[in-house]
Amino acid sequence: MKFLHLADLHIGKSVNGFSMLDEQRHVFRQIIGRIQSERLVAAVIAGDVYDRAVPGVEAVRVFDDFLTELANSNVTVLLISGNHDSPERLTYASRLLSDRQIHLCGMFNGSLRSVTLEDEYGGVNFWLLPFIKPSSVRGMFGECVIDSYDDALTSTLGSANIDYAARNVLVSHQFFTKAGVEPLRSESELNPVGGLDAIDAGLINRFDYVALGHLHGAQTVGGEHIQYAGSPVKYSFSEWRQKKSVTLIELRGKGDLTVTKLPLTPLHDMREIKGALDVLLSEEISAQADKEDYLRVIVTDEEEIIDPMGKLRSVYPNVMALDFENSRTSIDTSALAADIDKVESLSPHDLFSEFFLETSGAVMSEEQTKIVRELLETENEQ
User: Fold this and answer.
1) pLDDT digits (tens, 9 = 90+) for 231-246
2) N- or C-end of the chain: fewer Cβ atoms within 10 A?
3) pLDDT digits 0-9 by tens, 119-171
4) Which of 301, 296, 380 minimizes the C-alpha distance to 16?
């Protein structure tokens, strides 16, 4: 049985004020093409369909178009909610859609739902587990004590009466980890303080395949059969070096599994460039890649630059972030901030000067210094 595993669509997301809807439409067309060319049986979507619990109208339209194309491709759709989704909204019309082999599992009611698909080896049980919290399942399993995410998952799986002699696929949107292995995290993910939501991946090791959502970088957790698909689009500059993909799974007989990453090509890539402003604006440098890529630009000029963002966007219209790196910004101000005695010894003007240097990458001009001194004197008089 061949099926596609994807997750963390985050339809409707904006990055640094730039809408990602066109990027999402672009990769969805590629995903539909892959499904049709590979003649897949199912498409598994492991949560975070939307970026917000209440998605915008255009985001809903994009998802509706994608779901319609999936249905027209004659694949079974197996979809769960993630921590960004509204379970109730995602479950809407699920009973009607199941007649079209679109299985939407947004809400968990204490019973782990399964869908069985058949191939030449027999049945494959897909277990659909939407995002859960200990507080949301507490009381669903009698007197079971549920204080942690491990407890919540253990009770949920234990109540399902799973026959592990058969072929089983778990679809889940949780933070699974393996002891001693640091997962690849991204800035675009929600990161609870202290990793309190982490679940031991050993609890799901007996499944033939585990289709995970939640982490935005594609990766395994303790074995090839436990996979995060990753997001299909780059959603932060912590992901700019990642090669986005969807995961093709071929599950034959029991224990016979092949995992293949199918690359996705972005409409506009996300990348980082660094150098002196004039050099970055030159045709020699700007022509080396798509000028409409989403960029983080690091300017290394020593002198102060007037309107650097305006100049950059005249050549690179999709500059998302601008930083400075020069001899002034290389001064370690963190030690100064940490030393309370030193901070207290500085005048308000000197403190503001340090702040200006750290945030702008430049020393204040004489005119700027004069303005700041006049403002501070006025404030002291009042």
Assistant:
1) 999 999 999 999 999 9
2) C
3) 999 999 999 999 999 999 998 998 889 999 999 999 999 999 999 999 999 99
4) 296
Q: Mean per-residue pLDDT for 171-183? A: 91
Same domain assignment for residues 47 and 159: yes
Q: Supply the range of the domain harboring residue 124.
A: 2-263
Overall domain count for the chain: 2
Instruction: State the pLDDT at residue 266.
Output: 97
Q: What single string gives the DSSP state of each residue in 316-361? A: -TTEEEEEE-STTTTS--HHHHH-HHHHHHS-HHHHHHHHHHHHHS
- Evaluate whether 215 touches 230 at the Cβ level (below 8 Å): yes
Structural contact between residues 124 and 169, judged by C-beta atoms closer than 8 angstroms: yes
Which of 32, 45, 107 has its CA nearest to residue 71?
32
245 plus 365 within the same structural domain: no
Q: Is the pLDDT of residue 341 over 90?
A: no
Same domain for 100 and 121, yes or no, is yes
6 and 95 in a common domain = yes
Say what the pTM is: 0.84
DSSP 3-state of 66:
helix
Domain boundary among 263, 291, 318: 263
Residues 251 and 295 grouped into a single domain = no
Q: Does residue 110 register a pLDDT over 50?
A: yes
